[in-house]
Design a protein that fits this description.
The chain has 308 residues and is an all-alpha fold. The chain has one domain. Helices cover 75% and strands 0% of the residues. It has 3 helices and no strands. α1 runs antiparallel to α2 and α1 packs antiparallel against α3. The longest helix is centred in the N-terminal third of the chain and has 154 residues. The two termini are 20 Å apart.
């Protein structure tokens, strides 16, 4: 009887151990499943946060690009307008300088014309003086001739008077020829002076026109600045949760099977030992002959391999 009790206790212990092991395996599986779910949720949270950040960053990048593109274009337009204003200012300044140059040239040409007219007048006045002087000289010579002829006519007679008259006429002719030559020379010199005045005026006019600025021309206006083609943005790739290895589940039935197998083994061993047990009151007979019956090899369990 003590052997069977010991076998029963061992079997119960095996079964309890199997149940406890199964419970521990189930608890471990639940904890592993919980950890797995928490890791999946954490990975999903990270993926969601990454996607949200990438979306916001993508929109901000597009907005920054548009702001920078608009600012660059507005800056180019401002530079273009400023350059156009500078160009207009420089052109107006050159036009004013050209106008002043034309005014100075006209004033110089007017001065040259006035100077030439004054030179003409001076030369003409000098020529007139020469004509006046020649006229007076001729009148004086004629008076002298008449006086000489009168003296010759009064003082002498015959051939002497004739010769005296002829000599006086000859002297008058010589003097007249000399005055004609002098007058002609003076007129020719005056004409040369006139031509020199004209030539000098022409030279001064050329110099005045040469110093005048060339008529300015406005440079072509630069074309309006154009914007570069817009950049093509690609939507950010969607982040997916990182792969989480599924937990390795422990078998909850294996401890139970092992416990029951152990219990069966304990019971089988106990029965086998009980069959060979000698009672102290039977004088060495088989256990159970005093009222429990003969167990023998307990043929009812002999087919179970755990009790062989």
């Amino acid at each position: 009887m003590p052997v069977l009790w010991a076998a029963g206790i061992g079997a119960a212990t095996s079964i309890i151990g199997g149940i406890f092991g199964s419970s521990q395996a189930s608890s471990s599986n639940r904890q592993a499943e919980k950890n797995y779910e928490e890791q999946q949720e954490a990975a999903q949270d990270v993926a969601d946060a990454t996607n949200a950040y990438n979306k916001i960053k993508h929109e901000v990048d597009k907005q920054n690009y548009q702001n920078e593109r608009r600012f660059a274009h507005e800056t180019d337009l401002a530079k273009w307008r400023y350059q156009a204003e500078i160009q207009d200012f420089e052109y107006r300044s050159v036009v004013e300088q050209y106008g002043k140059s034309v005014e100075n040239t006209q004033a110089r040409l007017s001065y040259n014309s006035i100077a030439a007219m004054q030179a003409y007048e001076s030369e003409q006045s000098a020529l007139n003086d020469i004509f006046t002087e020649d006229t007076f000289s001729r009148q004086g010579a004629l008076v002298d001739q008449l006086q000489s002829e009168g003296r010759a006519a009064l003082g002498q007679a015959g051939n002497s008077r004739t010769k005296s008259l002829q000599s006086s006429i000859a002297a008058l002719g010589r003097n007249s020829a000399i005055m004609d030559a002098s007058l002609s020379s003076s007129v020719e010199q005056s004409q040369r002076n006139m031509r020199q005045i004209n030539l000098q005026r022409y030279s001064e006019d050329l110099n005045a026109r040469a110093q005048m600025m060339i008529r300015p021309t406005k440079t072509p206006t630069a074309p309006l600045p154009t914007q570069a083609p817009e950049r093509i943005f690609i939507e950010p790739m969607k982040a997916i949760p990182g792969a989480i290895q599924a937990p390795t589940r422990q078998s909850t039935s294996a401890p139970l099977v092992s416990g029951f197998i152990g219990a069966a083994g304990q019971i089988g061993t106990g029965i086998a030992n009980q069959s060979n047990y000698q009672s102290p009151n039977s004088g060495g007979g088989n256990y159970g002959s005093g009222g429990f019956g003969t167990f023998g090899n307990y043929s009812g369990l002999s087919g179970n391999p755990y009790f062989n």
